[in-house]
Amino acid sequence: MASQREILWEVGCRGHVDAWVLAPDWELATVEAARFWGVPWGKVAALCECKQRIVGAPKNICCRCKKTYFGPPPMCGACRETVKTEEALLRRSREQAYRTGKLA
Predict the structure, then answer these.
(1) How distant, in Å, are the alpha carbons of 14, 73, 86 from that of 11?
(2) Which residues pair with 13 in a beta bridge?
(3) Do residues 9 and 53 touch, judged by C-beta distance below 8 A?
(4) CA dist 64 to 31, 39, 93, Å?
(5) 79 close to 62: Cβ distance less than 8 angstroms
(6) What is the pLDDT of residues 12-56, one digit of tens each?
(7) pLDDT digits (tens, 9 = 90+) for 58-95
(8) Contact at 8 Å (CB) between 74 and 66?
């Protein structure tokens, strides 16, 4: 049985930061992006859009800052933490906007 080739996807969704995920196809990329954002897949599956698709992405080169690193793909630890913080701040600001009535 041949192993499936991993593709690097940049997945975008309104209300979330762009997620870089490794997956063999688009459907699994949306599942991984939902896991990255910490939301149920069913709530974001239809809203996801493919911003970039890279077949045969280089290993150990961060997709965000382009620096060489040693760790799990697709991002270095510093970029991973930065994106997680951006996602948390975006979520907090959207919740506050809903509470104050600025977003419907």
Answers:
(1) 10, 15, 15
(2) none
(3) yes
(4) 20, 22, 23
(5) yes
(6) 999 999 999 999 999 999 999 999 999 999 999 999 999 999 998
(7) 888 999 999 999 988 899 999 999 999 999 999 999 89
(8) no
